[in-house]
Amino acid sequence: MPFASQPLIDAVDNAxxxxxxxxxxxxxAASMHPNVEPQALHCLVQVLGYNNPGAAVAAVDGLIAAxxxxxxxxxxxxxxxNYGARAWAVRALAGIGDVRGxxxxxxxxxxxxxxxxxxxAARGLGQLKLDQLPPERAEAxxxxxxxxxxxxxxxxxxxxxxxxxxxxxxxALGLPPGDGRRLRAASALGRRVHADHEDTLVVxxxxxxxxxxxx
Length: 215
What we know:
69% of the residues lie in helices and 0% in strands.
């Protein structure tokens, strides 16, 4: 017996124009939930590699709505030769916040040529759901996130540095006062507050806000 999402998947597969594809992907994405069928997730992951930004945005929204169930299809479906698909996958993994996406987020922040992709990766590193892990794994993952953000605090694009500031705040807020990594995050934010280290006002303002929130 066909599963519930099959007609929606068929509509994506049989779309005859870019507009038809966009409508079909939006409908499929709107049906996503944590217990969605794997076939529907694989369909959305495939859409990330199509040359249709609107459909890719809708697919990312649907994958985020599916949550952790979408992580394995995203990672398994990555095409190293399709830059666009990898960029959209980074956005989806950042929005889901599952620690299984950590390695890809690290790579994207440190190596991706697209500022928007690096920005998404930075934000993703600041909102991984580490509290769901056993303490030792959570500590190791938190250290990796912090190292990646520290390395990118001087990124050449201000939008990335802004995202790094947001992520450092989020990461530090999950640590007790006096923790060495919280102090490291505050130190990195402190450098972004000063004009001799940061020439973009909005980044300085965001770093200053983060420091105030960290106390």
